[in-house]
Amino acid sequence: MLLLFCVYQLWWTNVESAQARDSAIDGLTELWQAGQGPDVDDRAEPQEPIPGGAWAILRIPRLGDGWKEPVLEGVGADELHKGIGHYPESGRPGRNGNVALAGHRATNGEPFRDLDRMRPGDKIVLETRDSVYTYVVDDPWRIVKPTQVGVVLPVPDQPGVAPTEQIITLTTCNPRWSSTERLIVHGVLNSVRPRPGAVATAPSSGAPKATPKATPEASRQVLPGATRKASPGATRKASPTAVPSPAASPALSPAGSRGADVVG
After folding, report:
1. Radius of gyration of the chain from Cα atoms?
2. Is residue 220 predicted with pLDDT exceeding 50?
């Protein structure tokens, strides 16, 4: 029985996760082609994604040329089995704040297996229904305790501080076959461009919403005041007093409500 359980955990969960991942990406792509799916980054009337539903596609070239994963709303076991989970109370693309994402490093598809390969300057690409956001890793990855929940705050490790830039945070377990630590990667928004093939839709007000053409200028649009250049030599350091305790600033639990640990 123990051998069968090991086979299930180490091999079969990856097979099931690959099938679920492909299904989620295919379903989301079909919705986008029909001009449907949550418009999460609309600046005037952003739509909330369905809990457990896919709303974006994540691509990280450092992890492989064909590496892509669906981003689902929530960081529970079901979401992380299908792909990458989004901490529901963290930021969303298109506005200042921290888009915090979690993924498994072992079993269940292990999408973040090689996250420790990330280096400053690497790209993290988040594709939504209408836009493609490119973030650049600005600091070397770091290791924190599971209770150091400040990493997913709007301004990492600085509770109560209003964000002035758009960033992304990736969290996973460390070491790979353990959960005693968390490996953290931060990136800062570098550019935004229209998603190729995005379909123009009409908002609830009835006024048509135009989808801009992907011109060379638009494809490298940098948002003034919301982004900064990545500095490979810089390291984001958190002072002990800047990291809130679980009681002071709890992270999101696997169920999406407030809990005690950073998910990995």
Report:
1. 18
2. no
Catalytic entry in 86, 92, 104, 105: 104
Mark whether 186 is an active-site residue.
no
Distance CA 173, CA 79 (A): 16
CATH for 2-42+54-202+210-242, among 3.40.30.10, 2.70.98.10, 1.10.3330.10, 2.40.260.10? 2.40.260.10
**CB-based burial label for 210 (10 Å; 0-12, 13-18, 19+):** exposed
Structure-block tokens of residue 58: 């994540």
Q: Under the phi-then-psi rule, with left for phi > 0, alpha for psi from -120 to 50, and beta for the rest, what region is 235?
A: beta
Q: What is the identity of the amino acid at 234?
A: A
Per the structure block, which two tokens stand in for 208? 């048509």
pLDDT band at 206 (very low <50, low <70, confident <90, very high): very low
Residue in the structure block whose two tokens are 């086979």? 7
6 in active site? no
Q: Is the peptide bond before 175 cis (omega within 30 degrees of 0)?
A: yes
Q: What is the mean pLDDT of residues 224-236?
A: 44
Distance CA 39, CA 24 (A): 17
Active-site position among 105, 182, 186, 193: 182
Lowest-confidence segment of 26-35, 181-190, 253-262 by average pLDDT: 253-262
Lowest mean pLDDT across 98-102, 172-176, 213-217:
213-217
